[in-house]
Amino acid sequence: QMPGTARHDREMAIQAKKNLSKTTDPVERLRLQCLARGSAGIKGLGRVFRIMDDDNSRTLDFKEFVKGLNDYAMMIDKEEAQEIFRIFDKDGSGTIDFDEFLVTLRPPMSKARKEIIMQAFRKLDKTGDGVITIEDLRGVYNAKHHPKYQNGDWTEDQVFRAFLDNFDSPYDKDGKVTTEEFMNYYAGVSASIDTDVYFIIMMKNAWKL
């Protein structure tokens, strides 16, 4: 876990559960259900959808959409699912683009927050190819401080891999983290932090920016 984020994560999940009982907006309810699972909740739903998308069209029809929500154990009735689907199916084609869906589901973030997240991403992305890999981390992240490295349980690569797993997705861990995955993760963290100032300080401290 990232320095300082485990606590935020718990606080955010508790807050999301509380807010769930108050909101009637179906998209917000879905967002809060994801966030109630922690920062990686929205990203996790994205992976479920990706697995359902057999033909790699990056779109889902209503049946796939409902199956994805059920597979991810979202408490949602058919009417509510239909309402959400209609909101996202802007052109009435009967399918939704799930990248667009996930971006909309992600808690909104100010420009200042997005910028500091991108700053951290660029610092980690040593090779500058838009993807963070184990190779990138060798130059930035010191594995030698990790307790499992110190007691000989893990190699340096295993420490890097575990670190990437925070941001990588739970269903299809490829040891690579894209800008999108990094953003999704921090959108979750961001949801638990009220002020931009505090979020930016946390990011600067965590990543020595």
Features:
209 residues, mainly alpha, Recoverin, domain 1, two-stranded antiparallel sheet, two-stranded antiparallel ribbon, 12 helices, 4 strands, globular
The count of DSSP E runs of length 2 or more, i.e. the number of strands, is 4
- Shape by Cα distribution: globular
Helix share, percent: 55-70%
- Please state how the strands of the largest beta sheet are arranged side by side: 1-2
And the CATH topology of the largest domain?
Answer: Recoverin, domain 1
Structural class: mainly alpha
In what range is the share of β-strand residues? under 5%
Largest sheet: 2 strands, antiparallel
Instruction: Give the count of helical stretches.
Output: 12
CATH superfamily name of the largest domain?
EF-hand
Can you tell me the number of structural domains? Answer: 2
Distance separating the two termini: 18 Å
Task: Round the Cα radius of gyration to an integer and report it.
Answer: 18 Å
GO molecular function, one term: calcium ion binding
Keywords: Calcium, Metal-binding, Repeat
Pfam families: EF-hand_7
InterPro entries: Ca-bind (IPR051581), EF-hand-dom_pair (IPR011992), EF_Hand_1_Ca_BS (IPR018247), EF_hand_dom (IPR002048)
